[in-house]
Fold:
Amino acid sequence: MTVNFAFVWPAIAAAFLASLVEAVEALTIVLAVAIVRGWRPAGLGVAAGLIVLALIVVALGPLLDHVPLHLLQLVIGVLLLLFGMRWLRKAILRAAGIIPLHDEATAFANETAELREQARRNDARLDWIATLTTFKAVLLEGLEVVFIVIALGSGRGMLLPASIGALAACLAVAAVGLIVHRPLARVPENTLKFSVGVMLSAFGVFWTGEGLGVAWPGADLAIVAIAAMFLVVSGAAIVLARRPQTRALS
Amino acid sequence: MMILLRELAGLFVDDGALALAILAVVGLSGTAAMLMPEVSLAAGAILLFGCLAALFSSAACTGRR
Structure:
């Protein structure tokens, strides 16, 4: 399988941006636990989450080589469509003001308040709860990162570039988080989710089509045109979804 | 464990209607690809425009509600 350079940079960018969003969300929870309960239980949960993730990758990774390419493209494509369009829909609704924007500062405040309340009720069990909380956060957000890397990388032999993009994002967020010791509330999360949603949905349509035997015009470059269409339609959906509220306000 | 599994499913399905619409579009596109293998672009067009329509209507309908 040869690496196509028309795909490499979009795949790295999509993996980097998507992983950035996931890493920021995980960091918020890890910081909340570390501040309320200390770095030991938080670190234990993070380490356990990373070990389980590594085991999942090691166990499932080699299986990908045994799946026929068209079937792999179809399955990954459909999952990418479900995953990417879910992100895109949410980003559209947030941009239109239908649902509130995800606020890391609020998420951090909620998480610390919940942990403090649990500490008040039952202090002895709290280290376990704190460890489990960070474990779950790292595992769930990490699984999303693993899925994105596999989805973007496995269809065209680009697992390495996609992994590099994802790893760079996770390391960058971890480094900034360790330095500032605060949730990264200034990251424009909805804009990132919107951009990544467009890219993942475009990859999803492309892979699904390839899996079904569609010969896209322009071959790999068709993905740029598909992404442009998703961008236009999403922009129109934001305008249309916003209109009734604006009317009600006026 | 159940919470983990539920959250895992939630990664792919948030709005059930949108997920169903996507699967229906993929099914329709697959049928077109099987029935007209020589015009594979028709299946691609169904897939692309079907997904765009599903996304647009899902977001617009939620906005209007």
Notes: The interface with chain A takes residues 3-4, 7-8, 11-15, 18-19, 22-23, 26, 29-30, 33, 37, 40-41, 43-44, 47-48, 51-52, 54-56, 58-60, 62-64 of chain B (CB under 8 Å). Chain B has a mean pLDDT of 87. Helices of chain B lie at 2-10, 16-35, 40-64. Chain B has one domain: 14-64.
